[in-house]
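Please produce the structure of this protein holding fe (ii) ion.
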Amino acid sequence: MSDTISLERTRALARISNLDALYAEADRLAVTPGWIKREKPVLWREPKSDFLPMHWRYQPIKDALEAAGGLIDVALAERRNLILRNPIPDNSFATTRTLVCAYQMILPGEMAPSHRHSSHALRVILDARGSFSTVNGEKTPMETGDVVLTPGWCWHGHGHDGEEPAYWFDGLDVPLTHLFETMFFEEYPDKYEPVVKVAQTSPYRFARDAMASALDKARPEAEGLHGPRIDLDAPDMRLMGLSMERLEAGRRTRRQRSTVNRLFVPVEGRGETIVDGERFAWQRGDCIAVPCWHWFEHRAAADSVVFEMSDEPLMRFAQYYRFEVD
Ligand SMILES: [Fe+2]
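Below is the modeled complex.
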């Protein structure tokens, strides 16, 4: 080390002779002392999600979408949807920390333009006859009770050959893409992607009847954590957990909590979900959000089928998965 550098270091150290000088120097170096008291600590004992447990009712949102049908042109707006924003401060969009949901409507004869984005998406079709998705040039039906996937970066647009407005539930991992800062988005060059193939079956479509047959063969979970359930395999959407669960009238699942963010959409039946003591009485089409580390249990009042989307595979992959049961 040269004498000049050594002298400069000695002077710099002399300058940092008290804590105020040290903090000023830390600012100058763009570092922060790890020992200072923070308004929000860096580490804490157990998860405490900012996001609230929530219940959105399908029927009034469906009515609002019907009204939007006369006010919003889907060719201009791209999508006529109402987003399930969790009502916490400074949140304009997300439903839970990693997931966002919406209800969407398309009118007979309309076409929602094609686009693609990094985020993975799915649709649970609530009331539709004759609507369809075009995914990477393949036109597949979207009928009531179906689940349709649009993995990240697949071109996708929607259309409707039927007679009545079509309604569905959208679920995406956009908040996760925002968190990772990995969003890409592109509109289709000619607005509407041409159909190159029409297919009734597709790895991206889970038809209602096929899921019902699979559920007939499924068994209830031995510990009473959930009813007969099938996983919807989505190999191109590995970090999202998708399942369909049957809860026969009278079934109660055990009270449980985990580090997973969960969204439940009953597609048949009625019942209630109790989240941290708060009772959400649901009907078909509603959405219940159970954020990370909140206790929940289901009670079915009628024979019910409940769709679930979650970030469970992500939590398991990260080795952040924890689970407790009463
Ligand atoms: Fe999209």
